[in-house]
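WARN no homologs supplied; continuing
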Amino acid sequence: MTPDQIAAAADALFQAEVTRRQCGLLSLQYPGITLDDAYAVQAALVARKQAAGARVIGWKIGLTSRAMQQALAIDTPDSGVILDDMLFPDGATIPPGRFIQPRIEAEIAFVLRAPLSGAQVTRDDVLAATAHVAPALEILDTRILRADPATGQPRRIFDTVADNAANAGIVLGAQRHTVDSFDLRWIGAIVTRDGVVEETGLGAGVLNDPVTGILWLVHRLARYGQGIAAGEVLLSGSFIRPIEAPPGSRFSADFGPFGQVSLNF
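OK structure emitted
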């Protein structure tokens, strides 16, 4: 994609979020789009939001499960940026019309005490840099159509990445734990919608270890000369499938001794 095309795509995504009207698939409009192009669109979109007053507070990692990777015919996770207007308190009620087609995922969040950057960063470095971990819910939304109405073509990885990895919101539970308090591979959640169990899962669903998700993010950012700052929140990746969140729905994620987190629409 040319710089003008990248700017135009970012503007279309920005306008889609503002107007709550989805735009068409970038993978159809730009058949030669690459992952580097998609991340360039994402960066331009985030810059547009920052110019409007938003502040970066962290990162999300997506597509970490084998099921989701196979559904999109990819073999790598993706990442997006968390902005301050995406953070909601535990138990919050999302106002009507805030999102287009929201869905919910359960995750383990990491909050850093020290920065992380560089291709040389190791798993031990991630553990040492982590202030605490917490239960979390991620709100996904799609500013790009899930499928093209004319051809039926579904979104591809390029569309999702450009759309800030479908990132829309984050809710942190009140509980905070040191990163070595639990074996995060065995931290699980029972996620209910309107009192009905919709999904269960374990942290091992995230690349066999949520810490591996954080390490993947650090190494990906290093390829672009970027890093993660102290104090930033990192969503390590969902270990459940996305759950639709229609108006009026109530969500609760019970992580057992790890904590709880809830959200309403």
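Helices lie at 3-19, 26-29, 35-51, 66-71, 123-129, 157-162, 210-222.
OK
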